Amino acid sequence: MSIPFSGPGVDRALVVGWSYGAVVGAHRADRNPGRALDAVLIDGAYPYDWLDEAMEERIRKPFRRMSRFLPLLRPTGPAPRMTAEQMANSNIDFGRLSRERELGPVLNGIAVPVRYVVASGTSLGSRGDEQERIHTGLDAMAARNPDIKSVKVASNHGAILRKDFRAIAEAIREVAALGRRRPRTHRPQPRSPCSRTRAQASQSPTPKPAPTVTAETEAPAQPDHIHAPD
Predict the structure, then answer these.
(1) Which pLDDT belongs to residue 152?
(2) Which 8-state DSSP code applies to residue 98?
(3) Which of 18, 21, 59, 151 has the largest CB neighbor count within 10 A?
């Protein structure tokens, strides 16, 4: 998510993400305000605390059941090249990243047009009004950030790309038009403590070396330095 936009002839990009990808897209738009034209987030990136220990077990249980069928499903496309445990962990990470304290500041900071396409159909594994309660997090966020708007569609989470592609395409066209009319802006990025220390050192007067002592030391080696399952 910290990798900047790049590519031949790419100045600004329109960010589109579904499910876990919507969370990634929100972070990209927030961290690269001068390079993000706008964003379309499809049934994901709802700032709501829906994950607890009981929910984690609800997530792991069906993946454990389907583990024996995954080798048969992968060649035909319905399953990603991940183990059942990896798929469960990915969904649990999705819940952690969607917590209000994690995702709320990201959405508050987005300064480009954002359109959510929200699935209103019942999704596999959901119970009662769980989905509607999760969507309330988006309503509260949109009330605070005027750049965020949403549209609801009839399909569910798994079928939204196939059944409501027209609504998604319309959202993309809408924000693309808004982005082209908006002047490009840059938001200054905070400097790390290390960079501030280096800057202060560069402004300090250079001390004179001791006349009788010369020391040569070898600098230590420096170490080299986050989908889409539902």
Answers:
(1) 95
(2) T
(3) 18
Task: Give the pLDDT confidence score for residue 5 in this predicted structure.
Answer: 62
Q: What is the pLDDT, as a whole number, of residue 106? A: 94
Asked if pLDDT for residue 146 goes beyond 60, the answer is yes
The residues spanned by each domain of the chain are 1-48+106-191, 51-97
CA distance 202 to 151: 52
How far is residue 20's CA from residue 200's CA, in Å, rounded to a whole number? 40
Say what the pLDDT of residue 204 is.
43
pLDDT, mean over the chain: 78
Exposure letters 23-58 (e unless 16+ CB within 10 A, then b): bbbbbbbbbbbebbbbbbbbbbbbbbeebeeeebee
Q: What is the DSSP letter of 158?
A: T
| 168 to 18, 38, 42: CA distances (angstroms) | 10, 14, 8
The separation between CA 90 and the C-alpha centre of its own chain, rounded to angstroms, equals 13
First-residue to last-residue Cα distance in the chain: 19
What span, in angstroms and rounded, lies between the C-alpha atoms of 203 and 109? 32
- What is the distance between the alpha carbons of residues 173 and 115, in angstroms, rounded to a whole number? 11
**Strands of the 148-153 sheet, one edge to the other:** 13-18, 36-42, 114-119, 148-153
**Percent of the chain scored above 70 by pLDDT?**
74
Q: Tell me the pTM.
A: 0.72
